[in-house]
Design brief:
8 helices; two-stranded antiparallel ribbon; J domain-containing protein; three-stranded antiparallel beta sheet; 49% helix; elongated; 3 domains; single chain; 5 strands; 370 residues; mainly alpha
Amino acid sequence: MANLASASSLLSNPTSLLFGSTPKKSTTTGDRSRLQYTPQTPRTTGLNGNLFGSYDWTPTSSTSTLPNSTFASSSLGYFMFPTGVQPTVFDAEKAARIQEEEDKRERRAKEEADAAEARWKREEDDRVKAEAALKAVQDTLAKSREARVASEAEQARESEELWVQSGGVLRGPDGQRDLEKTQRIREELRLREVEKRLTERWEAYEKRWRKLVLLARDRGVAGVDIDVDSQYAGSDAGDLDGEDVMLKFADIPWPIEPPSQVSSIADAFANITISTAKSASNDKPAAVSVAKEVELSDLTLKNIQEFLYAPLTVRGSTISKKQRVRKSLLRWHPDKLTGITALVEPSEKAKVVEGVHAVVRVLQKMNAAL
């Protein structure tokens, strides 16, 4: 019972060992208080019937100062809380409102950035379109200027050619006679005339073959397998048309030029004259000699070679000699001409067959030389 009484006195006394001694308030410096206490060293004297024994609370000479504290002094010992401090309570509504305002600011900033970017793109597109329109106008003006300059140059060239063709002599910017330019134009006109004649000669050759093939097919003759250039194709057989017409040696389109006409390019340059001379009797161009009929003796290597190769010298021609010779070999092959020889008069059939063989032999020599 004595021990229980001692424990009860300890629990009911705030200044007992369980609660610690009451600290003394130190001198205040500024607006902060410093607490000073005097530690005491307990000294056990052994059990004397008390619950926890007997202690000697003799103060020592050493003193200690508590650190700065915002706690107020209290007589409750170590079981105390800071005064004036309220516990923080999380406000969900306020946090949601703050987050919503932050989201609004971010959306507004993004919308402004997107609007600025869209405006910049529109301005850039407008600038590109304006530059493209300006370039188109400049290109149109440049093309118009080039066309005008080319047209003026063409008109000037035609005027100079007409003047030279009529026998005149050109003059330079200083008014002096420009003999060199005049001679150059004369040579150009002469070359054009030669090229024109060679082109027309080859076109006439292809058209004659076309008429001959059509005649054979119209009469239902078998064995006609000849390739003819479609660009020279005619629509009818012309003067060979008729059921009773029989072919002669001269009706065959032999690959040579009639003997009465110029037979080489060198002769063409030497003999072709560019003149507007008229005959005194009827005011018409001077008469030319009539072409003679082709004979078997005219089918020589020189004549055939000149006839086939001369058109290839025309400016702009893309056909090679090998192509021309090989195509001619296919056309003049005897097996492909059986239908044509069937239309020849019996009295001249042997001569035509001999002429075909002569042409084939020449073409074979030309092909071997390539």
